[in-house]
Amino acid sequence: MSTKGKVYSASMTALGVLGLVLIFLTRGPVVAAAEAASPGAAAAEKKAGGAASRPPSSFDGLVAKNALTMIEQGRRIFRFDTFGSEAFWGDTLQLHKAIAGEKNGGVGGGVSPKTALSVGLKVDSDALPDSLKQQLKNGKVDLDDPAITLALLKLNAVVGVTGLFDQKGSIRSMGIQCAFCHSTVDDSFAPGIGKRLDGWAARDLNVGVIVSLAPNLKPFSDLLGVDVATVKKVLTSWGPGRFDAELDKDGKALRPDGKQAGTLIPPAFGLAGVNLHTWTGFGSVPYWNAYVAATEMHGSGTFFDARLADKDQFPVAAKSGSGNTRAKPDLITSKLADLHFYQLAIPAPKPPAGSFDKGAAARGKQVFDLKGQCARCHVPPLYTEPGNNLHSPAEMGVDSFQADRSPTHMYRTAPLAGLWSHQKGGFYHDGRFANLGEVIDHYDTLLGLKFSEREKLDLIEYLKSL
Ligand code: HEC
Ligand code: HEC
Known about the structure:
Bound molecules: heme C
Number of helices: 21
Oligomer: single chain
Largest sheet: 2 strands, parallel
Strand content: 5-15%
Structural class: mainly alpha
Number of strands: 12
């Protein structure tokens, strides 16, 4: 290093230290202010003429406090808000009756905890009282009894599903939450039972099989213009970790090659800084949250997108008018800001120690950044492009079926942080590549990269390390 270089790097270090000191000096009071401020303080501040009349430090405190409030609210909405979707899943489809079973006032055999866990539903161990935990540990709970599933719903312990009970304690309806498809648990109590992991893709969850249990599937058959048997066939074709969020817009139940048309459920973590969302870049996080809450979860509220009025691309939506949903009361719009903020705050989880080879991963990073051209699109540390992060099907070397179901007709560069946590179900929007080796072989052929076996293995370890 030249002398000039040394001086430069020394002064950069000094600047770095100064920066750190400043961060420590300013961070303390801001966080303290946020924590000390009571809800009453915000009201008092408003009365006194707003934060603008205060010194800047006071407004900084307000910002920090606001951030914490939004995270708290957003978490609650993400986990527990049904957006009024019980009017659909319970009142209309009667899904709660299939869960309860005939013995508990419903229909059929009911859904036992064992069955619920086998279709990928998860139980929040923090919601279980100690006595129940002890009974579970001692094998004293009958996991074949649907009445236990109802008891878990009463405890609000089933991740992403809320049961509504009447005064006599019988289930009268049910709704779903974002956490249904975008949370899992850490299995710390037992397989499928543990602490919540918000934002993680629910790759065990068989959404289609669960929905197919509903006694009344007529709303789907009416909308799609097919019989109930066909609706069931489509729902059960998806398999675990998949859902089709465009079926009720374009009516395309199968791919042209006859395969199922659902996409993998992506994670809802590590999204801060990423421009377009969904596999095909439909829009931003709040755009998509409104789309899902109003048109997929069937909550009550507002969603607008004139692009969905296109009769050729979205014949079903053009007819149903779902691109201009104005249901009253609006239980969605007021929640989008907190919900957005919360998702942006969820970091991509780091891989567990020992889950990848460090030396190989370090070599794999070189391949990713240079020879593999991966970083051209998966730009670190976002691992997607800053800007319009879309590519044509031809550029990606894949068919255009799913891209053409989006207003963009493109595929979005998938952010790769936390990739290790959603390997189940495969990779790319429909899981067409069963493992990372297949993904790399695809790029090898597509881009003529001529990877050696060593480079491929190193690249896999790097991808597992993100
Ligand atoms: C029934 C399952 C299901 C539910 C419930 C659900 N989602 Fe999703 N979510 C999906 C699927 C499937 C996709 C991918 C859709 C696509 O690309 O067409 C997705 C995509 C997303 C994305 C884009 C992620 C990315 O990588 O860009 C976000 C963010 C998201 N959902 C958040 C939410 C929120 C917030 C809620 C609650 C309002 C919610 N989802 C409810 C299944 C679900
Ligand atoms: C031209 C831009 C581009 C380049 C170059 C590129 N990717 Fe991708 N990558 C994408 C897009 C777009 C997707 C999403 C495809 C889909 O969903 O069908 C994707 C998806 C992936 C996925 C799957 C993510 C998931 O959640 O399923 C992996 C893994 C991946 N890329 C790794 C790589 C590696 C490794 C390289 C270099 C060898 C690379 N990519 C080069 C654009 C690119």
